[in-house]
């Protein structure tokens, strides 16, 4: 019975030295290096533990946690359009600081502290902690609730890059989160110092100094909060596109009359002026026909140049055509008043037509009331009469193009009819595509 007790005690304390008897010597002797690990089961009541080698150490398997890989969103979980309307409301940095100071000063010491020095340091530590939290919580909310750009729909990702500048969105969010960490660090440091004060006067001085330091830290980075406020306003003002609704996109060189046609065709009211790049962003209108609502977008004009030389306005137009299911209404101005020669318009048109050939397409020659019998020639035009397609384009535009005039209201009724037909065809395309996605 005594041997069984000894074994049980050794199992409970594996670090004890083992005592053994030898037939060559009298009495027990020590085995100095022997250690017993609870691997074997000596009794039904004794629980066994399995061990595993982890980085050179023996660790119980129950404590070994498999390394968790960071979860990443699959393409199926990417955000749809409309993420900008879900952005949190960002307060100006001045308002955040004023609100935090006001709430922190209301904090009173814990009840029941009779000692004046203890009560004052308790109050100071609590107020500094409250100030730190009142500043850090909204900053954390912004960092967590502004979407990660790589999970946005490609259209909205392009809007961020082309409207705010490549990398600016992530940079501002990073600086706001960095500001939060600095505020937390300074706030905790001075709250701890205040809690260690030995007298009422020392606690009051450390409270005043701590508030000043936290305020200075926040003010140094407050500009980043205001930058985020500007970003939120800019993105929230972006037009929302319904991917399940057919969209008509007006494309062409600058000042060819796209905005005027948007006013005629839809509820959109874009600015109409006689100078290039009137449209400084994506403008959205709607067409309502037979109880159906269709979308119309007015896009910035395209110039004759390669993609590397295009400005962000032109890239916005290409982003709409690339990432949204649009039908294209391509507008041509052969009157010579838009500032882009018919020859250059022809080159732009051929390039866009080839690049987006899978889109439904309708060509419109605007300002037909100003067309002359002989084609307009610019000084930059090359006198190449061998290109018959270009010569025809200078006179009449592409084959099958519809000639319209907003001023004289020529061709507008037929234009509206053709647009409705094209949008109905686009609706059919979208429905077929949705059915295919469900089947696959």
Structural class: alpha/beta
Number of strands: 10
Outline type = elongated
Span of the ends, CA to CA: 73 Å
Strand-residue proportion: 5-15%
Mean pLDDT over the full residue set: 81
Keywords: GTP-binding, Nucleotide-binding
Protein name: Nucleolar GTP-binding protein 1
InterPro entries: G_FEOB_dom, GTP-bd, NOG1_N, NOG1_Rossman_fold_dom, P-loop_NTPase
Task: Using brief descriptors, characterize the structure shown.
GTP-binding, 10 strands, nucleotide-binding, two-stranded antiparallel sheet, 440 residues, alpha/beta, GTP-bd
Q: Can you tell me about this structure?
A:
By secondary structure, this protein is of the alpha/beta class. The protein has eleven helices and ten strands. A six-stranded mixed beta sheet has the order 6-7-5-8-9-10, with helices on both faces. The chain has a two-stranded antiparallel ribbon with strand order 1-2. It has a two-stranded antiparallel sheet with strand order 3-4. Helix 3 packs parallel to helix 6. The radius of gyration is 37 Å and the shape is elongated.
Topology summary:
Layout: H1 2-12, E1 18-21, E2 28-31, E3 51-54, E4 57-60, H2 93-105, H3 116-145, H4 154-164, H5 168-195, H6 200-236, E5 247-252, H7 258-265, E6 283-289, E7 292-298, H8 312-323, E8 326-332, H9 342-355, E9 361-365, H10 388-396, E10 402-403, H11 412-439
Helix pairs in contact: 2-3, 2-6, 3-5, 3-6, 4-8, 5-6
A few lines on this structure:
With 440 residues, the protein is of the alpha/beta class. The chain has helices spanning 2-12, 93-105, 116-145, 154-164, 168-195, 200-236, 258-265, 312-323, 342-355, 388-396, 412-439, and strands at residues 18-21, 28-31, 51-54, 57-60, 247-252, 283-289, 292-298, 326-332, 361-365, 402-403. The longest helix is centred in the middle third of the chain and has 37 residues, at 200-236.
């Amino acid at each position: 019975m005594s041997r069984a007790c000894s074994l049980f005690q050794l199992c409970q304390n594996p670090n004890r030295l083992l005592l053994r008897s030898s037939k060559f010597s009298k009495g027990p002797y020590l085995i100095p290096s022997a250690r017993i690990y609870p691997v074997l089961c000596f009794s039904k009541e004794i629980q066994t533990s399995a061990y595993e080698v982890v980085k050179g150490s023996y660790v119980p398997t129950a404590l070994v946690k498999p390394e968790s890989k960071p979860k990443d969103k699959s393409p199926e979980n990417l955000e749809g359009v409309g993420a900008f309307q879900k952005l949190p409301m960002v307060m100006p940095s001045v308002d955040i600081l004023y609100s935090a100071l006001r709430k922190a000063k209301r904090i009173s010491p814990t009840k029941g502290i009779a000692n004046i020095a203890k009560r004052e340091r308790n109050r100071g530590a609590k107020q500094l902690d409250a100030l730190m939290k009142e500043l850090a919580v909204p900053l954390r909310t912004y960092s967590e609730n502004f979407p990660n750009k790589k999970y946005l729909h490609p259209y909205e990702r392009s809007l961020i890059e082309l409207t705010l500048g490549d990398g600016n969105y992530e940079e501002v969010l990073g600086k706001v989160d960095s500001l939060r960490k600095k505020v937390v660090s300074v706030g905790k440091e001075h709250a701890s110092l205040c809690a260690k004060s030995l007298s009422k006067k020392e606690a009051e001085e450390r409270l005043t100094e701590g508030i000043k330091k936290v305020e200075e830290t926040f003010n140094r980075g407050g500009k980043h909060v205001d930058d985020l406020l500007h970003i939120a306003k800019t993105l929230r003002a972006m037009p929302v596109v319904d991917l399940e609704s057919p969209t008509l996109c007006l494309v062409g060189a600058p000042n060819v009359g796209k905005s005027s046609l948007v006013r005629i065709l839809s509820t959109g009211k874009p600015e109409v002026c006689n100078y290039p790049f009137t449209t400084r962003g994506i403008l959205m209108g709607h067409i309502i026909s037979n109880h159906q609502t269709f979308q119309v977008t007015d896009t910035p004009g395209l110039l004759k140049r390669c993609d590397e030389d295009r400005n962000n306005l032109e890239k916005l137009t290409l982003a709409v055509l690339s990432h949204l299911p649009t039908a294209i209404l391509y507008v041509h101005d052969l009157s010579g008043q838009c500032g882009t020669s018919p020859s250059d318009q022809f080159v732009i048109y051929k390039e866009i037509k080839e690049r987006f050939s899978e889109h439904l397409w309708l060509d419109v020659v605007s300002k037909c009331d100003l067309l002359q019998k002989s084609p307009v020639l610019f000084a930059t035009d090359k006198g190449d009469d061998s290109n018959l397609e270009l010569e025809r384009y200078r006179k009449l535009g592409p084959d099958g193009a519809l000639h319209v005039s907003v001023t004289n209201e020529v061709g507008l009724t037929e234009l509206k009819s053709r647009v409705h037909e094209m949008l109905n065809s686009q609706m059919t395309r979208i429905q077929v595509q949705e059915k295919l996605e469900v089947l696959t």
